[in-house]
Each structure stands twice: as C-alpha cells, then as structure tokens.
Amino acid sequence: MDAIEAILSRRVQRAFAPTPVESEKLLQIVEAGRHAMSARNLQPWQFIVVQNRERLNEMGGLCITGRFVAECPAAIVVLKDNSNTRWAAVDCAQAVQNMANAGWALGLGTCWVGNFEAQKLGELLGVPVEWSIFTILPFGYPDPAKPPQGKPLKSRREMVHYEMYGNPKPN
Amino acid sequence: MDAIEAILSRRVQRAFAPTPVESEKLLQIVEAGRHAMSARNLQPWQFIVVQNRERLNEMGGLCITGRFVAECPAAIVVLKDNSNTRWAAVDCAQAVQNMANAGWALGLGTCWVGNFEAQKLGELLGVPVEWSIFTILPFGYPDPAKPPQGKPLKSRREMVHYEMYGNPKPN
Asked: Among A16, A52, A117, A130, which is least packed by CB within 10 angstroms?
C-alpha cells in the first residue's frame, strides 16, 4: 500500500475476525516500531508480541477500557523506559503510530489501549520495574460484520495556518 | 513509495538543498499529521506552514539546537493544545511521525527540532497562550553533499519479546 494512502485511510479497529495473524506480519509491525524517531536516538521502547489465546484472554480481563483485547488474535505490548522520563512517552507514541500504519498497510487494524490494571498486567507479562506498560495494541483482520470506524476529523481549515497563526491562506 | 518501505528507510535530515518545496507537498504532509491517532479523537494540534525566507531565518535564530532551520526551504510548526495535558504531547508526537513519513515518501527529509526560545518564537508566529510550540519540522530535499544520516538502531533481539518479557523466541 502507498505510504500516504496508508496514513490517510487508516481507521481505528476494535472488532477482529478470528483469523490468525501471520507471525511474519507481526514482525514487520515490530520493525516499523523499531524504526520510529526518538529523541537523541535513545529508542526507549521494548515490544512483547502475544499470540497465546489464554494470555490474550487474561490481558483483556485486565483492561479497564479495551476488553476487546480478549478477542483479538494477537497483540503487541509496548513498554516505555522509566529511566528516560523527558521524552520516552513521546518517542513510544511515534513507535505506536508507525506500527498502526504498518499494520494497516498489511490489512490489519488496531486501537490504542491505554487504560488497564498496570501492576497485574506487568506481573502477567513479567515486566521488570525499569519498564512500564505504555500501551497494548491488539492486531487483527477486520470483523466483516463490524468494519473499522471512520472518525470525524476537524477540517483542515480549523488547524492549518500560513506563516502566522490565524492566517488561513498561503501568501 | 510503499508504506512499510517509507517507515523503514526514513532517515533524519538536517541539511537541505535550496530547491523550493512545492506547496502541494507541504499540504500532503499536513494532511498526514491531521490523520494521526489521538486520544478520544481530540486532535489536540495545529500546524503553521512557513515558507517565507525571512521568517525561516528568524526562526532558525531562535533555535538553541537546530539552527539549520534558518537554511531550510520550508517548515511546519506543530502546536500543542495546552488544555489537553494528559495526552496532547503523545498525540502530537504521532502527528509528527506521520508527517515525517509522508514527507519522506514525497522525497523530503526532516528532523525534530524541539529546543528553542519558546516565548520569542511564539511572538514571532503569533501563537496564542492556549497553544504551545511542540516542535518545528524543517522540510526540504536532501543536500546532495550531505545525504541523510543513517542512525544506528538497537537490534531487534534487544527489544522484542514473545509472550513474556525476556523470552526472545516465538513459542
């Protein structure tokens, strides 16, 4: 898929077909995350690829919003370096956007899940104290009965300025 | 350019050819930012497109690191909503990653410039107090004499785990 088409056509997806996700595709998604920008190139992230049905069920049970994680065929958990406090969240977010775009280009949807019982989830996944769980990204093919949601975006006019704030047209 | 190729091949660029950047391409880059993910779809960003030579020079003079902004043919300034403190930075970072990828797919490089005299820059660009300057993204074609830098990445082995933290191989 074309790079710009992937960015513009991506939608949030919360309902997944039961079709398994190819391990090779999950690896391509992780590679996309690994190639994100990061401040001073510190790459303050780690990724846990989860495909075990029982573990995904348990993870879903620990999500406060995003219980649909229990029904996804695969998930990638993004960990954030706790020692790199200034920019780590911003850097991890860039990895997430890259992974969402790469997944979409491979036919897979995802949704940012960030509200969970962090301590229990960390225990389930064996996450050391030097890292915190930044987000869970469930991945799967769209459920044909519940296609990805289009989200209403603010218009370009509401957010683009030229040369100075408040100037809506190119000079 | 293919979506995944754009993500994997992107490099940081700090030296630009003097070739002007087409306004249409800058608009495509802004569109990529507009289509980033954001928490609760709040889209807490604004973009200022700058192509005026004199203004770019002034902006470069206000950058503490990133004075090369003075030599870029165009820049996009990303503003962050100050009223949306929990997730705004993370959301803006996702817009930045999308814009860097889209620019790269269009033949343009960029570099995250985040260290500047914020108050003076805000006055120069007329930024209201409700917004803060998140980053300046200079955009331009590569200077043939200074091609984009490859950055050393940690190996996949150092950051990918399967099912549990510390498990380096798929089960």
From this structure: A130
